[in-house]
Amino acid sequence: MSSKIPVGVVTGKDLVALLEDARNRGYAIPAVNCTSSCTVNAVLEAASKSKSPIMIQVSNGGGTYYLGKGIKDPNASAAGSVALAYHVRAVASYYGVPVVLHSDHCAKKLLPWFDAMLAADKEYYDKFGEPLFSSHMLDLSEETDEENIDICVKYFKKMSAMDIWLEMEIGITGGEEDGVNNEDVDPEKLYTTPEQVWAVYQALSPISPMFSIAAAFGNVHGVYKPGNVVLSPEKLGKHQAYAKQKLGCVEDKPLFLVMHGGSGSTASEIATAVSNGVVKMNIDTDTQWAFWDGIRGFESSNREYLQAQIGNPKGKDKPNKKFYDPRVWLRKGQESMCKRVMDSCEKLSAVGTFEPRFGQGAPQIAEKGGKKELNVISVAVGCLAIGVAVGMAIAKK
Ligand SMILES: [Zn+2]
Prior knowledge:
Blueprint: E1 8-9, H1 12-25, E2 29-33, H2 37-50, E3 54-58, H3 60-67, H4 76-91, E4 98-103, H5 111-128, E5 135-138, H6 145-160, E6 165-170, H7 180-183, H8 194-204, E7 211-215, H9 235-247, E8 257-259, H10 267-275, E9 278-283, H11 285-301, E10 310-312, E11 315-319, H12 321-324, H13 326-347, E12 367-368, E13 371-372, H14 376-396
Parallel strand pairs: 1-4, 2-3, 2-9, 3-4, 4-5, 5-6, 6-7, 7-8, 8-9
Antiparallel strand pairs: 10-11, 12-13
The site of zinc ion has 4 residues, from loops.
């Protein structure tokens, strides 16, 4: 990997260089949904240990959770997503690898969330010359292709002015319930066609090269019963071939593709997807389970030390603080989640793709032209920016 790619949150040209590196060298970056500082740090730790770039992504519901479930506010998801983004910016560079800060699926009804995140990006861009987030996803795949692409074009123009990457989805992703919903759907529709993908490319490429496409290839969200839908990652190669032929280019993989529904996929399915130009794969369900499984194992082995503050098999007056301190059992969740993310790095051929550079850690709140301003003032400015972003979000309602 080019040593020019900085550690910590990457945006703009650095992000393009990173994703080109992934596509050219045939690896993909795990994109893990995070809902807390605890899970963010577990994912960053995994990236650091795997010597891999990483993506931290926040969903609409994840943002609401990050702000605090006790807060009922129409802008809760945006305020929480922005707070998570600032957390990542404060800690990412200490882990020594490049980090992509991304927001997950945004359907039509969630566009106010998207607008508020873009407002925070703008605020940040005006101060520091780069967006707060590296990238955002718009998912209008439930709408007609025409409307989907039109809305993406409209937003992409705004985003490209701030050097923000756009991920969009086209085609039907399965996995709603137990397969009943899919029975009436033409199975062909679970697979995006090369023509659909090309239509997206044609509409977006004149605006900026900074976009990726989530095309459906029989993938579903969540872990599902095998046999319900046939995963066909080889179909992604057809999108690349079609685009190559249309463009008449030498590049075999002109498109940046992403894979959703990575949980539960086999190593060979993932490898096929990556060989066809998938540069990012989402992981959520499996890391949720991993986090819980670490805590479950700890509780199960230490149950008798976790029933009261005082009193365990070693004596009725013995304290149990070393067992119930959240740093102890949440750490077990982190360790287990970290291990699962490292597994994904392995499956995506991302291990060892970036030699971590430590000793460059600093809150990455104020970065201009690649030159870090490593001081307390920049953190204070960052905190102020959070206040402004949240204030704007509240004022907008
Ligand atoms: Zn998804």
